[in-house]
Design goal:
Length: about 375
């Protein structure tokens, strides 16, 4: 009997319910990652995300090898690739952690039914949000459209579960005969030109680096977070966003480590503020769950008829390159291009400048942010 774990936005060993469930069965485990940029509705990754994914997968593969397992890499439409991998592994059980985008949920629903019809056991788990989207509703049963009442409702629910322990060992013998792509074959890294020097200087992807960053933030920066988080030059933010995006850390780990670090002492107010920012991440994912086309359509339909003027390409290029002549806007856009990161307040400023000052459709900005 073999179990297959399909990893997606959860590139970690600690607090990974799908992996934990497979290991706890005491059977051989095959760990699979699929690069799917072909399924209907799945958006191809931007350049910075591809760079991060390469390095995160590289570290994950090394860590799995240390535990006795192998990371199997395959590329293509998940609806075709996953059943093929399940068959190649002879897996009787398939586990994954849930995704919340519309196209991703459609793929998972179809695959779950298909695999079950083929006689496989399939189970999905809550791993990447503190609160499942269908559990947080207004009194009338509709999704929230305002953050504060949303977060108050979340806080009235049972507290997020404790993180799960990392497996000590994984029986990966079943994966030895399962074909895998080579990571380098995916060409996720830029080469001609290699524009990723700033990313390499600013970041170290991977679960272990994510844990260190969380620990450093809680030890060194949490105390000033409440008063300094809105100052772009203060260096008081957590820098955890890409690590949460790829699931190198779980939000449950961040939640419980923050609560433990704050206690009831001087850091309590800052911890409360930081956890509410984690709540904003929840709010964004819940909103996407209920409105899957959020990246391309106005959330408020009243703006669908807004008369955007004809695009002036030179204005858009100046914004993208940080050449508008507005110092804060330009500094933020250059930082984004160099490091793949921009402070939250500066993101607000740059987005506002694009839409309100340059009168450029917000979707143009979203496309640039997605890629960089």
């Amino acid at each position: 009997m073999t179990s297959l774990v399909w990893l997606r936005d959860d590139l970690r060993l600690a607090d990974n319910p799908a992996l934990r469930a497979a290991v706890d069965r005491g059977e051989p485990v095959v760990v699979l990652f699929v690069l799917d940029e072909e399924s209907p509705g799945i958006r191809p990754l931007g350049g910075a995300a591809r760079w991060w994914l390469h390095h995160s997968l590289q570290e994950l593969g090394d860590r799995l090898a240390d535990k006795g397992a192998t990371l199997v890499l395959r590329r293509g439409a998940a609806g075709d690739v996953v059943p093929g991998a399940v068959a190649d592994a002879g897996a009787e059980s398939v586990f994954w952690n849930r995704r919340y985008g519309g196209p991703e949920r459609a793929i998972d629903t179809q695959l779950k039914q298909q695999l079950r019809d083929d006689g496989r056991e399939v189970e999905s788990f809550a791993a990447n949000l503190l609160f499942e989207p269908w559990t947080v509703r207004t009194g009338s049963g509709s999704p929230y459209s305002v953050f504060t009442p949303f977060w108050n409702t979340c806080l009235s629910l049972p507290a997020p579960r404790a993180p799960l322990a990392e497996p000590r060992t994984i029986d990966g013998a079943a994966a030895q005969d399962v074909k895998s792509d080579e990571l380098a074959e995916w060409s996720l890294l830029p080469t001609r030109p290699d524009w990723a020097g700033g990313l390499r200087e600013a970041w170290e992807p991977g679960e272990l680096a994510a844990r260190r960053r969380l620990r450093d933030f809680l030890d060194d920066d949490l105390g000033q977070y409440d008063r300094a988080r809105d100052e772009p030059s203060a260096g008081a933010t957590s820098l955890l966003s890409p690590r949460l995006r790829w699931g190198e850390l779980s939000p449950h780990t961040v939640w419980h480590d923050t609560v433990a670090a704050a206690g009831s002492g001087a850091h309590a107010a800052s911890a409360h503020r930081f956890l509410s920012e984690l709540g904003w991440r929840e709010f964004a994912w819940h909103t996407l769950f209920h409105f899957p086309d959020l990246a391309t359509r106005n959330w408020r339909s009243a703006f669908d008829a807004f008369p955007w003027p004809r695009l002036t390409p030179s204005h858009l290029r100046a914004w993208q390159r940080g050449e508008t002549g507005v110092p804060l806007v330009d500094a933020g856009m250059r930082e984004l291009w160099t490091t793949g990161y921009m402070h939250n307040r500066v993101r607000m400023v740059t987005a506002s400048y694009l839409v309100k000052n340059l009168a450029i459709d917000w979707r143009r900005g979203e496309e640039w942010f997605w890629d960089t």
